[in-house]
Design a protein that fits this description.
Number of domains: 2
CATH architecture of the largest domain: Alpha-Beta Barrel
Distance between the termini: 68 Å
CATH class of the largest domain: Alpha Beta
CATH topology of the largest domain: TIM Barrel
Strand content: 25-35%
Largest sheet: 9 strands, mixed
Radius of gyration: 23 Å
CATH superfamily of the largest domain: Alanine racemase
Structural class: alpha/beta
Shape: globular
Length: about 425
Amino acid sequence: MGQGVLTPGFARVDGVLHADDVSLSQIADAVGTPAYVYSLGRVREQYTRLERALASAMPDVPHRVHFSVKANSNLAVLRTLQECGAGVDIVSAGELFRAREAGFGGADIVFSGVGKTAEELAHALDVQVLFVNVESEGELRLLNQVAGDRGVVAPVALRINPEVTVESPHEYIRTGEKGHKFGIPYDDAEHVAMLAHTLPNVELVGLDMHIGSQIAVWQPYAEALDRIKPLIATLRSAGVQSLRFLDLGGGLAVTYENEAPADVEQFAAGVAAAVRGLGLSIVFEPGRFLVAESGVLLARVLYRKRSGGKDYVITDAGMNDLVRPSHYQAYHRIEPVSAPHGAIVADVVGPVCESGDFLALARDLPDVGPGDLLAVFTAGAYGFVMASNYNSRPRPAEVVVDGDRFAVATERERLEDLVRLERAHLQWRSA
């Protein structure tokens, strides 16, 4: 293998994989493995592509892209998107803290999530978020109480479950079907909206939906909007004139194996046709679409092993570093950084003491051996953010690349970090 682009942002130069203009071998030598590597240029490209499609399709409709922080909460990635002009969608006080550290103001932030605490709601009000996506009547009443205690009026959008069926690779990434934990059941939406309209310490400023992830076509969004738009009309007829936002969630698909990627131009055209005339500002919350293809996980082969008629490639990266293959049965393309000759079929597994610890099963690979460096692709979303210390393994480093330069964005955890918050000498308390 000589030259060739594998994924935008990653190409082979003289047979060696590069992120932008930096050799992945050079990065591995400098920071060790496992390590996540993100192309900031690729993040910018994806944001620009989506924003241009939306601006072209609906120049007369106010809109903003709010990155879903749960996909990748690295500060360097967040700062890059902030510089591009994005807002953020967050689901915890920790993500709110990260967003503020990355330079996002309160008006740049939408606070979502099905289980917010009173403390989290108070924090959201203190930083004056754009609005809180409320997901139940109980949360609405709690937010009204918290806002009243602070002497403020909380801006609220109600997340409505449109109860539509979405085709997706795994049931865990569907969020808008009947009976899911997310959102307000459709049959209860009008009642909760009118309650929000009457409570003294909240203002109903919008409606929200999010139907799932890895959605490549416009049709499911159209079906969901066909459920939401009549509710808007009903509320306005009932005297609710405070609606200013319609949050369409995220879910745009990327390609891991053979999936069709999202057609952003079709998506933008569909949104434009569906929302024009509503008089609302549109909010989008893509996560995976903006960052998944920007990232790879670097892993070093430790051993080759044969057992029960199967070949194993054992690496230093495991399910604690990248849980998607085990948790979602997800496919990630794996390439050697310096491609050797030959071919094998092998399970690519990690060092974690679990039979479910694998990166790939029965995968066709070049004939890699101990010391070879592997790149696990499309790892920029739901990779490091889902990493754990299982088996008391330090979490990997995160590295960002921008053109011909790279920097460590997150230091590799040290062994002492594993016990930093634990107490060797307990301070007992009486019952």
